[in-house]
Write a sequence for this structure.
């Protein structure tokens, strides 16, 4: 299974075998991610980090992954301090970076930006989120979290919150359909999953249920995947205010759930999960943030040909 020099743009191009291989590679990387072992697997390699949107976990976990494997980082830094502020196009920026690094990771507010970057790059492009489009490395770390903390086969999962603009849940749904997951979508009607995605999931054989009540969905679930209502994705601030506080998880919400229920969240959270939930055995979102390191280590090693 060859990943070397491949772009990582969308989960729709991944087979189940490819995903399983990445997750297995990530598990081997976990002791290095924890600092229990050291590695120079990517010594001499440079990762260019181009983030046109704010990020904490994705950016820092990519940087940590590269450094844990002995590689180096070339960070674009603030867009305002780069030639982009002078009007340079994304295509030209990619052409320039192509000559400086061995791989690049890109986050951009415009959907399709990663695909465009891949057209102009001869080195692997890893999509770290493009607008409301795809976020494949988040999906892979989500799958890894589910595998490590629950189970992927026969999974019953509720995806709750912003299902309209949330790129994480769009990508995750496609991947879960490969594992025969029973998917419940929980959102206000204004933020329901796009109809074309629901139709596509059903065509792939996934069982999909929709509801606007978290209480109706949660008690029989193995995993609850919460997302925040993303203010920055709303063209109309008034529309955001209508739905901002409709879905929340408190300790009371969890009274009748399965003992093994795991609550995930791509973070950052706002007020959709109360801090009191953090101390319950259900909270899994901080482990989930850590799992991004071994998963991104695996991806970097694979696309740079350091492992097969």
């Amino acid at each position: 299974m060859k990943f070397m020099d491949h772009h990582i743009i969308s989960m729709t191009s991944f087979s189940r075998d490819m995903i399983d291989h990445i997750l297995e590679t990530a598990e081997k990387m976990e002791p290095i991610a924890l600092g229990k072992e050291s590695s120079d697997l990517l010594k001499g390699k440079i990762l260019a980090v181009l983030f046109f949107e704010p990020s904490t976990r994705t950016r820092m976990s990519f940087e940590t992954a590269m450094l844990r494997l002995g590689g180096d980082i070339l960070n674009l830094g603030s867009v305002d301090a780069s030639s982009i502020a002078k009007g340079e196009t994304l295509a030209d920026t990619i052409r320039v970076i192509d000559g400086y690094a061995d791989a690049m990771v890109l986050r951009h507010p415009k959907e399709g930006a990663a695909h465009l970057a891949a057209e102009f790059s001869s080195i692997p492009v890893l999509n770290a989120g493009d607008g409301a489009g795809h976020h494949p490395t988040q999906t892979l770390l989500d799958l890894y979290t589910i595998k490590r903390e629950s189970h992927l086969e026969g999974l019953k999962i509720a995806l709750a919150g912003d299902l309209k603009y949330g790129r994480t849940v769009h990508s995750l749904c496609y991947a879960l359909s490969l594992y025969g997951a029973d998917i419940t979508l929980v959102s206000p009607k204004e933020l329901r999953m796009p109809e074309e995605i629901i139709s596509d999931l059903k065509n792939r054989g996934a069982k999909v249920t929709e509801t606007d009540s978290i209480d109706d969905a949660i008690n029989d679930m193995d995993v609850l995947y919460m997302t925040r209502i993303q203010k920055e994705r709303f063209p109309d601030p008034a529309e955001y205010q209508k739905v901002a506080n409709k879905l929340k998880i408190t300790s009371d919400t969890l009274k009748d759930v399965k003992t093994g229920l795991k609550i995930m969240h791509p973070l950052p959270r706002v007020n959709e999960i109360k801090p009191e939930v953090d101390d319950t055995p259900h909270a899994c979102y901080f482990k989930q943030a850590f799992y991004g390191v071994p998963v991104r280590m695996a991806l970097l090693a694979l696309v740079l040909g350091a492992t097969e």
Summary: DSSP finds ten helices and nine strands in the chain. The CA atoms of residues 231 and 240 lie 6 Å apart. The longest helix spans residues 285-303. The chain has a mean pLDDT of 90.
